[in-house]
């Protein structure tokens, strides 16, 4: 948990240290499905992040999140992720994302994730998104997956 706090602090410091390069922040609510072999359940969460331009067609960003598998005996999983991708002239973003998530239950273990996503603008500040992530669990526990759709605000 200490490593997460340090990493989150570094992301926040970077966001405030280079405001001249900042492109945009975002906050979102999302929901979808979480599954592993023989088990599936709804998932809901929130995320906040910041993206920096890498020229006119690319970006890099950081994101913090909280997600919960909507099942008894689970807890909110906190995540810290990085994303990199491209953007079109219309504002649509396509990206790869990867990061660390805390354990979702008392007997579970933390996980690393990798995935892909897309955000489509609805006007100047609203956006919709779809995202898929694969969670690499380890410790003899089967990997899992999540697919979510969300609605967010860019600022």
Features:
155 residues; mainly beta; Porin; eight-stranded antiparallel barrel; elongated; disordered N terminus
Mean pLDDT: 88
Task: Examine the coordinates and then state which fold CATH places here, giving the name of the CATH topology.
Answer: Porin
Low-confidence stretches: 3-22
The domain tally reads 1
Shape: elongated
Number of strands: 8
- Please provide the ordered H/E string of secondary-structure elements: HEEEEEEEE
* Broad structural category: mainly beta
Share of residues in helices? 10-25%
Number of helices: 1
Strand count, sense and barrel status of the largest sheet are:
8 strands, antiparallel, barrel
User: What's the CATH class, please?
Assistant: Mainly Beta
Q: What is the radius of gyration computed over CA atoms, rounded to a whole number of angstroms?
A: 16 Å
Distance between the ends = 29 Å
Beta fraction of the residues?
over 45%
Description:
By secondary structure, the protein is mostly beta strands. The protein has one domain: Porin, CATH 2.40.160.20. Helix content is 10%, strand content 62%. It has one helix spanning 2-17, and strands at residues 22-36, 39-53, 58-69, 77-87, 93-101, 111-122, 126-136, 144-154. An eight-stranded antiparallel β-barrel has the order 1-2-3-4-5-6-7-8. Strand 2 and strand 3 form a beta hairpin. The longest helix is centred in the N-terminal third of the chain and has 16 residues, at 2-17. It is elongated and about 45 Å long. The model is unreliable at 3-22 (pLDDT under 50).
